[in-house]
Recover the amino acids of this structure.
């Protein structure tokens, strides 16, 4: 567990084990098909032997052009306005059968201001790799059950907010 030999922070979801948190920073639970401003993904993976948190935002009007990333395959292209590492306090505890990831995210920097009882749409999951941590082999999520695809980078990178569940903050 917790092996990811990827060297490109924008592709860590393809190159090994990762934990994945996808959610809207906007309050409310209205479903929508395509990502909108405020829909983000924070991917947690190992990068160069250290835990890393990667922010992926398909729509971010304030993102600098240098943060833009395209994922292309014969099937199509998906463009993110922002893909970059963010500061997050992370601890990973590994034993022979599993790992436990604890992360503290800079919610205000992400644009999320929590209030008791606040509801947002989101999903959480994990990505498993081969034994060497070179390529992903399985994607499993709490809410979105259509995640068995592991051979198309644009589709695997993308957010599917219509398949997200509901998070309630207490």
């Amino acid at each position: 567990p917790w092996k990811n030999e990827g060297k490109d922070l924008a592709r860590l979801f393809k190159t090994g084990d990762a934990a994945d948190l996808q959610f809207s920073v906007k309050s409310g639970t209205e479903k929508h098909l395509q990502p909108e401003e405020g829909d983000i993904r924070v991917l947690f993976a190992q990068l160069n032997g250290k835990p890393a948190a990667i922010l992926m935002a398909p729509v971010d009007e304030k993102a600098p052009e240098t943060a833009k990333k395209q994922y292309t395959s014969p099937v199509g292209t998906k463009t993110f306005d922002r893909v970059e590492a963010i500061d997050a306090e992370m601890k990973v505890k590994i034993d022979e059968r599993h790992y436990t990831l604890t992360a503290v995210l800079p919610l205000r920097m992400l644009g999320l201001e929590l209030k008791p009882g606040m509801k947002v749409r989101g999903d959480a999951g994990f990505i498993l790799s081969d034994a060497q941590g070179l390529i992903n082999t399985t994607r499993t999520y709490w809410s979105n059950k259509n995640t068995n695809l592991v051979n198309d980078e644009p589709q695997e990178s993308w957010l599917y907010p219509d398949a997200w569940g509901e998070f309630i903050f207490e």
